[in-house]
């Protein structure tokens, strides 16, 4: 069983507006059978943090196109995207590059 993880989740570029305007969240992910990865983190975020209009953040089991994801300041595309296994004290930043008019 995977131990609980303490992870910093941050939203920017307007994405924080979907989370009551709060940019930084220090979250404790509960222990579970499978190791935590970005895919399971997104499910957790949708259930626990996302306040409105999930379609602006989530598409299918990933983030919408136009949302950049950085894990410890590295592009998640270099780390395996949804399959990246979270480590204790990781920092995950979601930045929206979508700007409506």
Automatic annotation (TrEMBL):
SUPFAM superfamilies (UniProt xref): MoaD/ThiS (SSF54285)
Protein name, entry field: Ubiquitin-related modifier 1
Description of post-translational modifications: C-terminal thiocarboxylation occurs in 2 steps, it is first acyl-adenylated (-COAMP) via the hesA/moeB/thiF part of MOCS3, then thiocarboxylated (-COSH) via the rhodanese domain of MOCS3.
GO CC annotations on file: cytosol
Pfam families: Urm1 (PF09138)
Protein family: Belongs to the URM1 family.
Key words of the record: Cytoplasm, Isopeptide bond, tRNA processing, Ubl conjugation pathway
PANTHER family, sorted: RURM1 PROTEIN (PTHR14986)
Entry keyword annotation includes Heme: no
In-chain residues carrying the UniProt-annotated modification 1-thioglycine: 101
HAMAP family listed in its UniProt record: Urm1 (MF_03048)
Chain's gene name: URM1
């Amino acid at each position: 069983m995977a131990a609980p993880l303490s992870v910093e989740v941050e939203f920017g570029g307007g994405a924080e507006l979907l989370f009551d305007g709060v940019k930084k969240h220090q979250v404790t992910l509960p222990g579970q059978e499978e190791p935590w990865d970005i895919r399971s983190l997104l499910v957790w975020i949708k259930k626990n943090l996302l306040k409105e209009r999930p379609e602006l953040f989530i598409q299918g089991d990933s983030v919408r196109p136009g949302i950049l994801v950085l894990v410890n300041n590295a592009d998640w595309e270099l780390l395996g995207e949804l399959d990246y296994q979270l480590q204790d004290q990781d920092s995950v930043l979601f930045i929206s590059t979508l700007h409506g008019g």
